[in-house]
Amino acid sequence: MVRKKTDCSRRERTTAIKIKCLNLGSDTKLQAKHEAFSCDKAGVAETPEGKLLINVDAGFCGDRGCGSTGAIIRDSNGGFIAAAYRFLPYVLDTPTAEACALKEGLELAKQIGCNKFILQTDCMAVVETIKEEGFSAIAAATIYEECFIVWRYMMEATIEHCHREANEGLANDVALLSNE
Fold it and tell me: What is the spatial distance between Cα 84 and Cα 54, in angstroms, rounded to a whole number?
């Protein structure tokens, strides 16, 4: 049975990604060649032809001092390329978790050989820090420094802010996988 894109719930999309991760023998990374991933297109912003869209997000639990990150890469048609998620057993705060999500997205892009992309995050501090060449005076400063070292060699990469509601898609869901 082939489902229409609108028939897939967020839970089904997340479960599909988790199954793909587990089938590849890794619970933290997922790589795949471009394949039909019928649920992904919902909510995907327009991406210029030839560029990939990388969406990153993070979660933070202040009570436990832990967090999680998620990154997903899609092609210009919204098709699934790759995803990664990571559990952060020790993280100071939300800004640090968001910086780790940026790093996760950049590492995934580097891993698949991608340097022509639009990176989206719902954390304006991440966008501003990268646009200010990685300078930061917060606890995540060393993470930003590492990210900017990678970023400056990605000549055709751009970073932009997307509103939290727009970022409630798969990157958010993938970040939540780490806590399950």
Answer: 11
Domain 5-177 homologous superfamily, CATH? Ribonuclease H-like superfamily/Ribonuclease H (3.30.420.10)
Is the Cβ–Cβ distance between 83 and 35 less than 8 Å?
no
Q: How far is CA 22 from the centre of its chain?
A: 18
Q: How far is CA 43 from CA 24, 56, 78, 113, 140, in A?
A: 27, 15, 9, 25, 30
pLDDT in tens, 58-73: 999 989 999 999 999 9
* Residue carrying structure tokens 């933290």: 28
Rounded distance, CA 13 to CA 10, Å?
5
84 secondary structure, DSSP code = E
* pTM (2 d.p.): 0.73
Tokens for 47, please give them: 């991406």
* Domain extents in the chain: 5-177
What is the C-alpha to C-alpha distance for residues 157 and 106, in angstroms, rounded to an integer? Answer: 10
